[in-house]
Amino acid sequence: MARVHPKGVDLGEPGAVSCIEIAEPAPGEAGAAASVLLTVWRRSLLFNGNGFAVFDAKGNLAFRVDNYASGSKKEVVLMDGAGKPLLTIRRKNLSLGEQWMIYEGEDDADPRFVVKRDVNPLHSRALARVTPCASGAKSRRAYKIEGSYSQRRCAVLDGERRPMAEIKRKEPAKGVSFGLDVFHLVVQPGFDASVAMTIVMLLEQMFGSRSPLLKIG
Which of 84, 91, 79 is nearest to 52 (CA)? Predict the structure, then answer.
């Protein structure tokens, strides 16, 4: 493990965690494991904001989500570290259940995926289902999310039940517990890390205990 200060990010507000532990590949694993390890922080880089800051294994800012607390919250945008919009989440209009559309960049047409919360969790292990849209999907594969987001232990599974991305608790380091606001996102080769992070955002919307990223209704 290496103690890495996030690069180029001001984290100096009172009471904030000033650094995070970034996991490094164990000896002999670098060539065999090509998965992407991200450290997700449930906090916005904006003052009085609501969102996420996501760091790669070198401590660089990989993704960010910044919603103003007083905003309309009709949509939420995943950006790269430089602030370029990658994907946008919007609520599906006139949906009976909780359904959300994922769009490329800030487009408002031809969504890539629709994500629907499972309506009967007592009889299913699924939290939600991710289905490609015929017009905008780069992949025709559908995915299912199983586990417990509230415990930060869940996975995005493909049709053969192979884990494409996993959310994992971040273990305490040197006596410091990170709680639920800092956790790992492990993305397997061939799965879009930005889509994986967008799924995290939607799980937070559906099952998170803090102020929602999007306004329902």
Answer: 79
